[in-house]
Amino acid sequence: MTQQHQLMGILVVEDDAALRINILNYLICAGYTVKGVCSAIEFYREFLMAPYAISIIDTDLYDQEGLVVAEYARKNTDMGIITLSEPLSSSTVPSSFNSGADFNLFKPVQLRQLLSCVGTLFSRFDAVHESM
After folding, report:
1. What's the pLDDT tens digit per position in 115-127?
2. Pick from 24, 40, 73, 78: most CB atoms within 10 A?
3. Across the strands, what pairs with 104?
4. What CATH number does the domain containing 123 carry?
5. Residue of 110, 68, 64 whose CA lies nearest to 87
6. Contact 23, 79 (CB under 8 A)
């Protein structure tokens, strides 16, 4: 992980507090700088305050559909986007990709799989920025 990633970090948008804390703790233990929020409005506030390399977004937020948040992030940044959806919402998978997600994972999230997706996105981020 480069210093640039330390400055930018990962933003986790998940309204389930227990899941959000598990994700945050796992990513922190893996050496990432992580911030967690529980709503779309908090995402937008953070989005305006600091750039993030990656956002992990629940597709079913209580104040706005997470796919709208993902689409906004894709249209306005080059951040990596991982969406988290319920397994029974199989229609969310194509919608997640159409909204700009790089990966879609089903809940309950397998944290090692999430970590692998994060690593892949940071590798891609490095490759793109090194070629500039």
Report:
1. 999 999 999 877 6
2. 73
3. 83
4. 3.40.50.2300
5. 110
6. no
Number of domains composing the chain:
1
Q: For 64-69, which contacts have Cβ atoms below 8 Å and span 24 or more sequence positions?
A: 64/39, 64/40, 66/13, 66/40, 67/92, 67/95, 67/96, 67/99, 68/40, 68/99, 69/13, 69/40, 69/43
pLDDT at 59: 95
The two tokens of residue 69 are: 């948040």
Q: What pTM was computed for the model?
A: 0.90
Query: What tokens does 102 get?
Result: 């790089």
Pairing of strands 80-85, 103-106: parallel
User: Is pLDDT of 67 > 50?
Assistant: yes
- DSSP annotation string for 24-89: HHHHHHTT--EEEESSHHHHHHHHHH---SEEEEESB-SSSBHHHHHHHHHHH---EEEEEE-TT-
